[in-house]
Amino acid sequence: MLLLKQWKKAFAEFLKSPIITFKNGLILKIEYRNEHDKLHRNPEIGPACIGYYENGNIRYKSYWVNGERHRLDGPAIIGYYENGNIRYEEYYVNYKIHRLDGPAFIEYCENGNIRYKEYWVENKRHKLDGPAFIEYCENGNILYEGYWINGEKK
Known about the structure:
The protein is mainly β. It has a domain at 18-97. Helices cover 9% and strands 41% of the residues. The chain contains one helix and 18 strands.
């Protein structure tokens, strides 16, 4: 019986219509909200919020569960340059900045090179086996490295 209730809830969520915001006749934003008016969508179905540039390209995608940034299998927020290249990626689990298998924040230059990356675990900048913050020059050379463990600068 519990599985049937979960399936019905998931199916109803899948069918729920988004809130679409227009500007000058163009789609500016698409949002999915729950019954408490919080951003919400099953991350396996897709992002809860998608923003658009005036040229129609995606500005950002963000994944939310019951009003909290959350995604287990990828970045919870992905920002894009107007040309479509990725601008940044942010990883959250239950609204905590968190990623175990790589950097939790990554920002890219418009040419696709990494500008900086940060390693976070449970809302604390953290990395045991190297720098927790690395900033790069636009050509890809390392500009700065910072070391943190459990949120404390070393």
